[in-house]
Amino acid sequence: MSAQNIRDAVIIGGNRIPFARAHTAYATAGNQDMLTSTLNGLVARFGLQGEQIGTVAAGAVMKHSKNFNLTRESVLGTPLDPKTPAFDVQMACATGMEAIGSMANKIKLGQIDSAIAGGVDSISDAPIVVTDELRGILMEANRAKTLSQRLKALSKIRPAHLAPQAPGVNEPRTGMSMGEHMAITAHAWGITRAEQDELALASHKNLAAAYDRGFFDDLITPFKNVSRDTNMRADSTLEKLGKLSPAFGKDLGAEATMTAANSTALTDGASAVLLGSEEWADQHDLPKLANFIDYEEGAVDFVDGAEGLLMAPAYAAARMLKRNNLSFSDFEYLEIHEAFASTVLAQIKAWESEEFCKNKLGLDSALGTIDRSRLNVNGSSLAAGHPFAATGGRIVASLAKALHGKPGKLGFISVCAAGGQGITAIIEGR
Amino acid sequence: MARDTYTEFANTGFGRTLTKNLGLPQPAKLRRHRPGRPLIDGPVVVLGSSEAASALADRLLSWDLDVRRHLGPKEKVAGVVACFDSASSPADLSETVLEIGMLLKQLKPSGRVITVSRDPQGTSDPSVRAARSAVQGLTRSTAHEMRAGGTANGIVLADELDPSAPGVAGALRFLLSGRSAFVSGQFISVDSVNGALPQNWDRPLQGQVAVVTGAARGIGASIARVLHRDGASLILVDIPAAGEQLAAVANEVSGTALQLDITAENAGERILGHARQHHGRLDIVVHNAGITRDKLLANMDESRWNSVIAVNIESQLRMNRAFLASDLFNSDARGAMGPRIISLASTSGIAGNRGQTNYAASKAGVMGMVSATADQLAARHGTINAVAPGFIETEMTAKIPFATREVARRLNSLNQGGLPVDVAETISFLASPQAGGTSGLTLRVCGQNLVGA
Q: Which residues of A61-100 are buried (b: 16+ CB within 10 A; e: fewer)?
C-alpha cells in the first residue's frame, strides 16, 4: 500500500477507573466488572450508546481461563451496539499499548473507522491454578466412562495435590521477580537511592497537582465509590521515603536501593482509549485530541543476563526515533512508565551513554538527554499504580489531553514489560 | 426513597374504609402522565361566557376532548375550566363560582379545576383588581377542598393578552394533564404571545439540547429521564466524585456525561464548550445541582453558609452570565424556540424553614435571580423560571426522622409527598416551546404545602 493511502488515527479521548492498591477497594471486582465499568464510562463521556465500534481490543495479564473472551463479554455489558467485534490482547505490561497501537494501525489503513483499546488487571481476583498432579487426576476423572473408573481416578488425590499454586509475576525462565531483575540492572547502571526517591516523590506531587487542577475530570470515572488513585500520597516527602528499607536486591546489602516506595505497587484497575479516523470523529461531533503517529515493539535477551529485563524500550526507542527522524529534544512531553523508578533512570542513563548507544544500539553517538521538566508531568505509575494491562490506556489518554491545543507538539511514550519486552510510541497534539 | 406505607394502606379496600371512618387523611393514587395515554380521562366543562371561554373551548375541541358548557346531574366530569377574565367587580364572580361548586361532587378522581383570570397588577381600577384578586383567593381555597387526588390551579393572563396565545394553551394542557399531578393551588402567569405549540405533544422537546446539573441521582436523574422521554438530547453534569452514577444515567438516556464542579470559575464555559463540540447548540439549562448544610443559625459556621450559597446560587449566577454572553445559547437566532433556563428553588425559600437559613437564603436568591433575569432572556425570546418543590420522596427526605417525615407528607392538600418525576414534569413543561409565554415565575410543586419543607 502506498503512503498516500495512510490516514490519521485520531485519539478522541479516554476513560479509566481510579487505580486501587491490590486487595483493597476492588478486591471483590473481577476483570470483567472493571473493564465493563470503564467502557460504560467511556460510552457515557462520548455519547456512544447504540454505536457500532469498528473493533474493541483489550486484555488482561492476570486472566481467569473462564474469561477467555473477556473483552467481548465486557462489550456486551455496555450500551454499545452488540454487533461491535472485540478481541483479547496480551503482552504483559505493554498489553494496553499494543492494543492501542494495533488499533491505530487498522484505522490508518482504513480497515476500520473507530476503535476502543485498553486493558484491565486485577491482582485481587487473580486466577489460582491447581497443581499439575491434581489437574491430571481431574481430567482423568472427566474422561472416565463409568462411576468406578471415576472413583478410582479421584481416589488418587493426596492432600499435597490440593495446595493452590499462587499466581506469580516471577519470570518463568529465571525464577526471579521483576524487582530482583531490576535491582541487578539498577546496580549495574549505578542508580542511586536518592534519585529514585526523587523520581517517586515527583510522581506523587505531579499526580496530586493534576487532580487538584481538575486534569482528570474528563479522564476518570469513579468506581465503587473510589474517585482518586488510592496509591497516591500527596503528602509524601523525601524524608519519609528515605526511611524505608530496601525491598529488592537485598543480597546487595548496603548497596540495595529499591524500596516499596520507589517501586510500583501491585494495583487493580482498567482503562480504555477511543480512537477514530478524522471523518468518524467529525461525523460524531467528537473531539480530536491528538494523532497516534507510530509505535515500536522491542525485546531483549535477558535470560542469560546479556541485558536487563526491563531495558527493551531503550532499543525500541532508538529504532522508532530513527525511523521518524526525531530526537528527545523534539518532544513536548515524555511519559516513561516506571515499573520501578530505577527503570526510568536506567533507560535515561542508557540513552545518555555514548558507549551503550554505540555498542548496543548501533548508533554513532548518544541518543540524547531527557529534559526532566517534561517527564511524567501529570504523575506516573509510581503514584497512580500499575494495573499491568491498564497502564497503556492511562498514559495515552493523559498525554493526548496534555497535547491537545498544541498542534504539532509531540509526546513520547515508553512502557517496559515482563519477558524482556517493551513498547515505545509517538503521539502528536492537535 | 422511603416507602409511603400509609398511602399504600389507604389505597387498599379495607384501608379506604378505615381511614374514612376514622377521619384520617385519604391520600389518593395520583394520575400521572404516560406518553400515548389520553390527556384527561373524561369530559371537560368550560364555564363562563368571556372571550377566553370560547377561545379555550375551541382549543380543547382541537385536542379531541369531550368539551361541555353544561353537565347533566348524574354525569362525571374530569376537568372544569372556569373563565373569569371579563370580571370587573367581585359581584361578577358568583354565577361561575357556584357552577364550580355544583360540579365538584361530580368530579372524577384526580379531577382538575382551572380558573382563568387576568393579572390584578394589570389594572389600577379598585373594583377590577378586587375581582381579579378574588379569583386567586377562591382558587387556592378550592384547591384545599379538592378530594381524591384532584387539584385546582389558575392561569393568569396579562392584561390585553389574546387568550388564544400558545402560552395559554400550553399552561392549560399542562394543568389538565397528569404532568401536573403534584401541582395544586398554584398560578401560571402567561405574559406574552411567545412560544409555539409542539408538533407532537408527547415529544415537545424533540431536537432540543438540554444540560441538567446534579443529574447523577434523585430529582436530577428524574429530570434527565423526563427530558429524554420528551425528546431532548442531554448533557448531564455532576461532580467528578458522582461520575459512576452519572455515567449510568447518561447511558440510560443516551446522553453525555460531563464531570464538572459547577462552582468552578469556568463551569459555564466548560458546558458551552461541551455543547458546541457534541451538538453545536444549547437550548435548555436546568440548574438542579444543590446542597443542604442544615444548622440552626446560632450554630452556623462559615463553611456551611458559604458552601450552600456558592453551590446553590452563586454558581448559577456565574454560569448564566456565561450562557447569556454566548451565541450558542441563542436558539432564537436559528429561528427555533428561544432558550430556556429553569432553576430549582424550594418552598423553604418561600416560607423559610427552621435550621435552613443558608438553604432558604440560597433558594430565595434563586427566585430573585429568576425574576430579574427574565428581561435578559426576553431579548432573545427565551424564558427563565424556577420550580419550588415541597416535600418530595427522595434519598434526602428519606433521611428525615420518621414522625417528622410522616407529618411533612400529610401537610398538603394531596396528603402525600410528591415524586421526583412530578418536579421533572414541571421542569419539562417550562422547558417546552408551549411555555414560551411564561417567564420570571416560581412555580411550586408541593401539593399545596402549607409551609416550607
A: bbbbeebeebbbbbbeebbbeeebebebbbbbbbbbbbbb
Domain that holds residue A141: 132-162
- Among B246, B264, B277, select the one facing A287 at the smallest CB separation: B277
Residues B298 and B257 in one domain: yes
Same domain, B165 and B216: no
Whether A416 is a known active-site residue: answer: yes
Closest chain A residue to B280, measured at CA: A285
- Chain A hits for B239, CB-CB cut-off 8 Å, are none
The whole-angstrom separation of Cα B388 and Cα B372 is 17
| Contact yes or no for A216 and B279 at CB 8 A | no
CB atoms within 10 A of CB A56: 25
Q: Inform me whether the pLDDT recorded for B412 exceeds 90.
A: no
pLDDT in tens, B266-325: 999 999 999 999 999 999 999 999 999 999 999 999 999 999 999 999 999 999 999 999
Q: Do A217 and B259 touch (CB under 8 A)?
A: yes
Mean pLDDT score, B334-360: 88
Strands of A27-99, DSSP E: 55-58, 86-88
Q: Using pLDDT thresholds of 50, 70 and 90, give the confidence band for residue A153.
A: confident
pLDDT over 90 at A42, yes or no: yes
Q: Please check whether residues A363 and A405 belong to one and the same domain.
A: yes
ipTM score here?
0.89
The residue length of chain A stands at 430
Question: Model-level pTM?
Answer: 0.91
Can you tell me whether residue A418 is helix, strand or coil? helix
Q: Domain check: are A336 and A387 in the same one?
A: yes
| pLDDT > 50? residue A194 | yes
User: What distance in Å separates residue A25's CA from the closest CA in chain B?
Assistant: 15
Where residue A3 falls among pLDDT bands split at 50, 70, 90? low
Residue appearing with cell numbers 438516556 = B253
Residue B244 distance to chain A (closest CA, Å): 5
A83 within domain boundaries: no
Option in B242, B256, B261 nearest A44 (CB): B256
Same domain, B2 and B78: no
pLDDT of residue B395: 82
Indicate whether B120 belongs to any domain: yes
Which of B174, B323, B329, B359 is catalytic? The answer is B359
Per the structure, the count of domains in chain A is 2
pLDDT of residue B451: 66
Q: Average pLDDT in the A337-366 region?
A: 95
Give the strand pairing for A290-299 and A421-429: antiparallel
For range A374-398, the mean pLDDT: 97
**B306 lies in the same domain as B416:** yes
Size of interface A-B (CB pairs under 8 A): 69
* Number of domains chain B is built from: 3
Q: Are residues B217 and B365 in the same domain?
A: yes
Q: What distance in Å separates residue A410's CA from the closest CA in chain B?
A: 24
Assigned C-alpha cell, A71: 473483552
CA distances from B107 to B115, B233, B334, B360 (A): 15, 38, 45, 37
Structural domain harbouring B347: 209-445
Q: Which residues of A touch B281 (CB under 8 A)?
A: none
Chain A residues closer than 8 Å to B251 by CB: 40, 43-44, 49, 78-79
Q: Do A359 and A424 fall into the same domain?
A: yes
Residues B405 and B259 in one domain: yes
State the smallest CA–CA distance between residue B391 and chain A in angstroms.
28
**Is A44's CB within 8 Å of B240's CB?**
no
Mean pLDDT of chain B: 92
Q: Among this protein's residues, is B359 annotated catalytic? A: yes
The answer as to whether A207 is a domain residue is: yes
